[in-house]
Amino acid sequence: MDKLLLLGDEALAQGALDAGISGAYGYPGTPSTEIFEYVQHSKEAAQRNVHRTWSANEKTAMEEALGMSYTGKRALVTMKHVGLNVAADPFVNSAITGANGGLIVAVADDPSMHSSQNEQDSRHYGRFALVPVFEPSNQQEAYNMTFDAFALSEKYETPVIMRLVTRLSHSRAGIVRTNQLKENKINLPANPNQFMLLPAFARINYKNLIEKQKFLEKESENSKYNVYHDGKDKSLGIITCGLGYNYVKENHVEAECEYPILKICQYPLPRKLITKIVDECDEILIVEDGMPVVEEWLRGYLDNCLKIKGRMDGTLPRYGELDPARLRTALDLEPYPIKEVPTIVKGRPPELCKGCPHRDTYYALNEAMKEYEPGHVFSDIGCYTLGFLPPFNAINSCVDMGASISMAVGAADSGLFPSIAVIGDSTFGHSGMTPLLDAVNSKSNIVAFILDNSIVAMTGMQDSAVTGRVEDICLGIGVDKEHLRVINPMKSHHEENVKIIKDEINYNGVSVIIPRRPCIHIVAKLRKQK
Amino acid sequence: MKKDIILAGVGGQGILSIATIIGFAVVKTDLYLKQAEMHGMSQRGGAVESHLRISDKEIHSDLVPHGRSDMIISLEPMESLRYFPYLKHEGWLITNITPFVNIPNYPEMEHLLKEIKGHKNSIAIDGDAIAKEIGSPRSMNMVMLGASAPFLEIPFEMLEDGIRAVFGRKGEDIVKKNLDALNRGRDFAEKHIKK
pLDDT value at position A256? Predict the structure, then answer.
């Protein structure tokens, strides 16, 4: 059969399509975006009419997927690791309701924070919510596991996390498709109270969820993804999670690894296999990409039972993604000779594109803010976060989706003047509307910029949920029409824009300024549509 | 057969098209391939890299190990040096020499060339100039792919097929120009090796 050359993200998506999903839900976020986009652009998905419209944020996506699962059909929901924080409420409660139709929560973590604010590990969420986790170590596994994850989800009526990391999400390899399942038909839950989390029912469901765990553990013990490879030298046993296995193997290309290796790709942890390797070997090295999750569990709080090496004792770095060289050091193998980077090589950080509308917005904002000390501008997650870098140095914070407006409100409450928020149109749709409502209700003295470039630019041009409706939304929330200003972020409008910004800074109340000009990457496309 | 390649450049220069074309060629064979790339904020005007691994045996790591790369193909001279820690001492450094200057402290060109030529096996080629000569400035990346072709151990026709497949929907003219760019790059490299 022909191989398809797919990213890890795309392999998971193809797996989900072949495993018979009826809907994909999600919000863009690097490195998860391509999972959803693959479904969105799939001809097959179009023929089958699989749901594939971006949701407003991860929480609505998770709930919509849960709604599809309620009806008995299979659903996939995709997000980046910090997106799962946004969806945490429905996610944790979906473990209590359980699933009806198969439900996969595909989460892409970002060790080393290539494109993120933190490197939280979604396996923590799995354990926290008592939800099984699959963690593929390669692209073909990402495809294959999707079938097993849906089967497990339906067998035990539980959502399942599929955890990817950047390096797998964004790496291509040849994939062979194996099977194609039919979609489920509508079939409502046999127990009409399954999704009714009133305390009386929630207690019953929670008890069931806890009882399920021993069966899920048994599934892990028998899983084809958790494999014990024996080795002659028992002075060390290596436990690898997900991609960690590849880096160990990479350092044993010439000769087989002499130590036993337990490759783990399905959780809860396979207790029997862990016990076996721990009993057989003098010392254990734990290799996991992301946080030392398994290492912490095995060490326990007192850390006095086992000889364990890993990220917590410095054998591997405490943070940052793994790579073959880091494993080489951990395995006490001779490092390969390395050429240094010549000192003349300088850093080349990302920048706002030439011609980007955000540039003109920041030039105008900076000029209007000249008379004040620095430290007044709260920003958000998007391309415009690059306004922090020279020559702009225009913003002072970037925390989480929507935090620009809420932090500006809190700072204004403290007496900071002026207090400015800068947020993109899609981020506004994701999590900016509720803090703007707070601002209106408490008559905060803030100026909120909603940078409307008609697209989700940073993640690669996805549709924005609020395109064409930003003013209506602001007015509906209660922003005064007089202080809802649309400006054209162009050099030719600079003086006029500076004046408008100054006027709104001096207005004591909520002002919204919408600099509107499409992202330069979609201008040609928009012209064609006209 | 085993080739570990680092593709380097600045966001927007077209390293991903190179990776796509090689990937297209390789996936039709029995060879294994892994190709790791960067997406998201890291793309915009900043340094970008892609790791491309081809082998007749199973490939484990998605990343090329430090000190093990057979080849750096760089679309920009300063970027070619950034990935030295990956390159084997006898590995090939194949780089475009037209600088992409978007930082205030960009080094002097002569210093860059000295470092590039100081590496044992290097090919420095003005990919931008050749692409302009053939009337297709945007095909610089295909000139560079052509310049690396003699070292790839992939049949040249398969790279040509890759170009036809990837650029096909953009029309016959674009395909022709990119094929031309590929050939010009290869010719340059072959002459250089003979010297």
Answer: 86
